[in-house]
Amino acid sequence: MDNRLYAVKRSLILFHDETHRNKKLKEINFHQKILTHTNILKLIRSWEEQGSLYIQTELCEMDLFQYSQDNRMNDLMIWSLIYQICQALICLHSLLFVHMNIKPKKILITSSSIYKLSDFSRIYNVRYPPTVIENDNTRYLPLEVNHGLITTAVDIFSLGLMLVELISKNTYSTLPDDTWNEIHQAKLPPNITDFMDVELKNILLQMINPEYQQRPSACSLLNNLIVKEKVRT
């Protein structure tokens, strides 16, 4: 015993068969393929018990969704979030993995303000694209996913859309569907852009570009001079 506190996640659905079990083990298999990364939630250990999968991880303070309920993220936090999560995505994308489920509840915050990408149960390898997208919430995904096109640019779009949501303090439950459809086409309404400076708006518009080839990579965002300058300040 090391007298530290950890988090434990238990799968709510019991294993039906070996195929279902292998799907649940996808997250464990992913962690075994990557090195420890500051901005990726650290897996401590995992085990199976009575048909359920248990995953023990490092403990964080809260997720971004919880934080955003009572707090507005200032510009410095947004730029830091872009910088830190892009570092996690570089790690994933270099191995040809796509997270496919980036949203506020999947990004955790530590007591020292480090952002960590979590929950890799929906992760895909672009070398082996799925025939069916296993995602019960496609609202953060770009339109090309509906046509079976999965690239690392999917994560960039999801991150950008999530940032739009956090900055404006609007959610899918507080804005009409047609507004979110416009945002998916990189058309940001004034009531959202009013909360952004011009430089941030330009970065986000690049990230949610409906043409996936035109989106910046995580590496190019990390090396963007504006992003670097904002993080330093």
Report what the structure shows.
The chain is an alpha+beta fold. The chain folds into 2 domains: 6-58, Phosphorylase Kinase, domain 1 (2-Layer Sandwich); 62-232, Orthogonal Bundle (Transferase(Phosphotransferase), domain 1), CATH 1.10.510. The protein is built from 10 helices and 8 strands. It has helices at 18-24, 26-33, 64-70, 75-94, 153-168, 177-184, 190-193, 198-207, 218-222, 225-232; strands at 6-10, 43-49, 52-58, 62-63, 97-98, 107-109, 115-117, 124-125. The strands form 3 sheets. Strands 1-3-2 form a 3-stranded antiparallel β-sheet, with no helix packed on it. The protein has a 3-stranded antiparallel β-sheet with strand order 4-6-7. Strand 6 and strand 7 (115-117) form a beta hairpin.
Tag the structure with descriptive keywords.
globular; 13% strand; Phosphorylase Kinase, domain 1; 2 domains; alpha+beta
Quick take:
The protein has 233 residues and is of the alpha+beta class. The protein has helices spanning 18-24, 26-33, 64-70, 75-94, 153-168, 177-184, 190-193, 198-207, 218-222, 225-232; strands spanning 6-10, 43-49, 52-58, 62-63, 97-98, 107-109, 115-117, 124-125.
